[in-house]
Amino acid sequence: MSLRVASLFIASFASIAAAGPAFQNFVVQETVRVVPAGFTKVGIAPASQNINLRIALPSRDFAGLEKALFDVSTPSSSNYGNHLSKAEVNAFLAPSDVAIAAVDAWLASHNLIANRSSSVGDWLSVNVAVSKANEMLSAQYENFAHRASGKTYARTLSYSLPSEVADFVVHIHPTTTFNNPRTLRPVISAPKPGIVADATPASCATEITPACLQSLYGIPQTPATETSNSIAYANQADLRSFLKTFRPDISSLTTFTLQTLDGGSNPQQSSEAGIEANLDIQYTIGVATNVPVFFVSVGENFQDGDLGGFLDIVNFLSDEDNVPQVMTTSYGENETDMSKALAFKLCEAYAGFGARGSSILFASGDGSVEGGQPQPCIEYQAAFPAGCPFLTAVGSTHGISPETGSAFSSGGFSNYWGTPDYQADAVAAFLNAQGTTNSGLFNASGRGYPDVSAQGENVQIVSGGSKGGVEGTSCSSPIFASVIGLINDKLIAAGNPPLGFLNPWLYANPGMLNDVTKGSNPGCGAKGFTARAGWDPVTGLGTPNFAKMLAAAGL
C-alpha cells in the first residue's frame, strides 16, 4: 500500500470515528461450541463487572521474522549467530499503521482509548464494563467456575468484530480461551530404586542431586566467568541450605537478581516460597556454576486476562534492551485450553526472543499423552507452549543406567503447528518405526515434542528448610537450561555469540545427546508413545552430553 493510499485509508477511519456510531456489520471471529471440560457456567456476568480486554494486532511481517530467525539459528547458514537487535525484531512484529488506525477508530467510536502494552505495539489493552464488551464484540459474557480451583472467570462462547476492523485484530482476550488456572507444577516424589553406572554416586539410584547430574551428563564444576551471560527463569534461606548440602564448593551466599511482575514477590517465609521457585533457583544456580541468574516472579495480579502471566512476561521481556541468553519456564497447559489465534500470537513473541539470541525452554508437561483430560479420552492431548516450534520443549527421564523416559512426561504432536523443517526427518523416522500404533489418536503431521529431556524424578531440593524429592518436567527444563547456560559462557568467553534458538542446532547434531530408548507415556487407554532410537515424543533427541555439545558448538 502506497503512503498516499495508506494516509487516505487512515483519514477515512478518523472521519468515521468522528461522525458517530459506525462499525455495525459484525462478522464472527471465534466460537466455542461447548463449555470446556473442567468449567461450569454459573450465570450471566453482571453488566457492571469490569474486564481488561487485551487486543492483539497482526504483526507487520512475521514471515520475514521467521526467515530471519532460521537464518541466524541454522548452523549451515552464513548468518549463523548474527542475532537481531531489539529494533530489528520489533520492526517485524509491530503492527502496520493501517491496523493501528483501524482499531483506534473502532475504539474511538465507543469513546475508548487503548493503552499500548509494550513498545512493540502489537498488544493493546482497554478496561471496560461487561455491558460495553458485549456491545463492542456482539458477545454475551458469562461467568464460568473452574471446578478444581474454585476460581471464576468471565468468558464468552462467541465474539464478533465489525467487518471494517476484523482483518486488523488477531485475537481479543479474555473471550473464548478457557485456560486452566492450575498450571504445571512439580509434585513430591517417592524414591524409585535404580541402577547406577560405576562412575556415578550410588545414592543417585534414589536421589538426583547436582553431583548426580554432573556425573551423568559430564557437567563441569568449573565456575562460569562471563557476567554478560545470564539465565532467567526462592527462598534465600532454602538456597543457602541447598548449596551447603549439595554444592559446598559454591559460596552459600550466592544469590540471584529478582524481577517482579503482576504483584510477584520474593517471599522469605518458608510457607510462601513454594516448591516451584526453590526448584528453579536451586537447579540453575546449583548446576550452572556462577552463571548469573534472574528470577522473574509473577504474582496473581495478572494484567493479561488470567493468562497466568504468559502475555505479561512476553511484553515485559520485549521491552528489555538485552534479553537473557537462556530462559526456562516450568509451566504450561493443554493446547485446546488456548485459542489457536492466541497461541500463535504468543508463539510469535518466542520467535522474536530467539532471533535476538535467547534460548527459550519450556517444560513439556506432566500429563503424559492425556493432558489431564476427563476419562475416557478418545484422542491424545497436545501441550502449550511445548508445541510452539520456536522454542525447545524438555521432557523427563529417570534412572541412571539406562535412563528411561518418565511415564508422566508429556509428548506428542501439536494440532496447531505443522512439522517444522528442522525436525522433519527425525519425525518421519519415528513415525515409520512406529507404524500403525496409536493411529488416529494424534496429528501425524504436527510439530513433534519434546525436543530434548533431562532427569525429572527424585530431584532433591530444600523447601521450608527440609530436604525432599520432587518430580515433573518442571525439574528437567531448568537442568537442561543450565547446561546451555554453561556452554554460552564458554562461547562468550571465546568471543562468540550465544546459541540462541536451539532447535536447528539440536536436530543437526543429534549425536551430541544421550539417546534414550526406554520408557513410554501411556494414556487414554492406550500405550502412548514409546522411546526409540533417535527422536521420539517421550524423550526427544535425548539428554545432555556436555562434552559432545561443547564440541558441536565449536569449542
Q: Number of folding domains?
A: 2
Total of helices: 15
Strand content: 15-25%
> Tell me, what is the CATH class of the largest domain?
Alpha Beta
The count of DSSP E runs of length 2 or more, i.e. the number of strands, is 26
How does this model look, in words?
The chain is of the alpha/beta class and 555 residues long. The protein has two domains: 3-59 and 95-173, no CATH class; 208-552, 3-Layer(aba) Sandwich (Rossmann fold). Helix content is 30%, strand content 20%. β23 and β24 form a beta hairpin. The longest helix is centred in the last third of the chain and has 21 residues, at 473-493. Its main location: secreted.
What key phrases describe this protein's structure?
single chain; 555 residues; alpha/beta; Rossmann fold; 2 domains; eight-stranded mixed β-sheet; four-stranded antiparallel β-sheet; 15 helices; 26 strands; globular; disordered N terminus
Q: What would you say about this model in short?
A:
This protein is an alpha/beta fold and 555 residues long. The chain is built from 15 helices and 26 strands. Strands 11, 12, 13, 14, 16, 18, 19 and 22 form an eight-stranded mixed β-sheet that branches. Strands 4-5-3-9 form a four-stranded antiparallel β-sheet. It has a three-stranded antiparallel β-sheet with strand order 2-6-7, with no helix packed on it.
